[in-house]
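Glycoside hydrolase
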Amino acid sequence: MIKKFLFCSMIALLTATTAFSQSKSKETTQLEDPDNLASQYFSQVMGVAADATSNVKLYKFIYEWIGTPYRFGGNTKKGIDCSAFTKAIYDKVFNTTILRNSRDIFSMVDPLSKEELKQGDLVFFKFKSRSISHVGIYLGDNRFAHASSSRGVVISNLNEPYYSRGFYKGGRIMESFRKEFEIE
């Protein structure tokens, strides 16, 4: 009777250990998956459920650039400026060619108010200038990704006093440019 009990106990322990090991392995695989990492990161930063992120390609792209230092005129991971970062997102994520300068990019959009912004729209700012001096990409929930001159590539909130004061307009690429560049 005792032998039978010990044998059953060992089988149960072995089964539990195997199940735990398989569960850990699956968990590790999920943590190593870049799409899952990007979703988890944005879930934490933006306060949205990971499965609610509608464009993982966008989030993954931004995730890979977070922390890249700012460099005026730069367009690599060694350093990038706001318009080059925005241009890279549109090139790689949306297969769309946009111009290189924030003022020129603004000439390609239909202007929008903050309330009209959707994920993937552009946000334009005027800081200490009468002309547009900064651009980023809207992510939703008042968050946007951009190359900050002081912090590099980051996600910020349009409601932060600095960005709220400098916000000029949002924008969506005009249909005429979409057709010209053969955008879906």
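thats it. The two ends are 73 Å apart (CA to CA). The chain has a mean pLDDT of 80. bye
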